[in-house]
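Researcher: Next entry in the queue.
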Amino acid sequence: MALITKAIKGTKDVLPAEVHKNQYIESTCLGVAEKYGYKEIRTPVFEHTELFQRGVGDTTDVVQKEMYTFDDKGGRSITLRPEGTAGAARSFLENGLSNEALPQKVCYLTSCYRYEKPQAGRLREFHQFGIECFGATSPLADAEMISLAKQVFDELGVKDLHLELNSIGCPKCRADYQNALRKYFGAHKDELCTTCRERLERNPMRLLDCKSPEDQALAKDAPVVLDYLCEECSEHFESVKKYLDSMGIEYRINPRIVRGLDYYTKTVFEFVADSIGAQGTVCGGGRYDGLIEEFGGQKTPSLGFGMGLERLQLVMEAQGCEFPEPAKPDLFIVALGEKAQLKAVEIAKDMRAEGFTVLYDLNARSIRAQMKYADKMNAQFNVVIGDNEVDEKKATLKNMQSGDSTEVSLTTFVNDFYRISMDEQLKDLEINGEAFDFGSLFGTDISEEN
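Model: Structure for this entry, 450 residues:
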């Protein structure tokens, strides 16, 4: 039987040597969200297909071309989530969060699935960090949402992103704009791609989002949505800009941004990077005041964004952003013989209970093979235990970075190890900077006399 050796096209393994980068980005995203009062939510990987047809929009590329949809064994049409907002909105309604104090702020790290042509920064299984704010009317909420995204980028050290901003109005004023688009594109109907001809009457704004080069060229001279905003939408957009100015967040007005999902209203935005080519949109979102009502709930003004984690990592790597080093094991125990192995297991148990990462050989190999394996594991310390060490209850602990060796007691090994490792950390602080100030741990000046 032939081995199955390749992952499915459009998917990607994240190996142990690289996963610390993902963890760093994810923990930073959740940490920033927490500062803004967002709590994590976890929703199913698949939903009823109708949820995405009604929420995302059945005229979008996502629904028409990209969703992974199938019938389950009960004959129900099921879809792997192509984005995170619809599932979060469904959960908000189903679980009664709409009856809690508003706004409800939720965030998530989630996998999404779209059948697209794979390329750098675009996979068929990809991951997003997203936030959703249900029940917020004020334009301040729009600005705060954008501020949150920017703070994520700032804390990760990402540079050279530009914020593009637009308003696509509400259903009331958008009707006039759609009529203007029908008139404009109708005069060029024979030049449109087949998909856009079908969309022209149902949802002409989708033509602005078409990937066809010919349709993109036509869209450059199309009417501008900002010229059709009603008074309320215009005032909302002006207030969003004032809040962003007050926050010191720079932006560009781009009237061609409509986003690829139908649920958006008023504010839409994208953070775009120039360092990863065509797939430069790292984060996109906006307001969706009608979505909860579309799902059968009460009118609930809401907003959110999705941030592509694979694209974000590509940008960080292209810009040379710093990632933390992978965590190293604290200790590797080289054990020779059964008696030593039993002692190694005992020490490892006690060390792990105190929060240390401890490894030992699982294959009963020679000391030379164990030392070679320990070196590959890059442990900070190692200790060799044989029958003599067990009988004398002493062993030699070696710092694998400095080469220093210290005799330790096997009876009080955890305490000895903690003391020695702390001493090494303090030495590093003195070497790499000023002498360590213990008073800084307590917010006091220990040089003062009592």
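Model: The chain has a mean pLDDT of 90.
Researcher: Noted, moving on.
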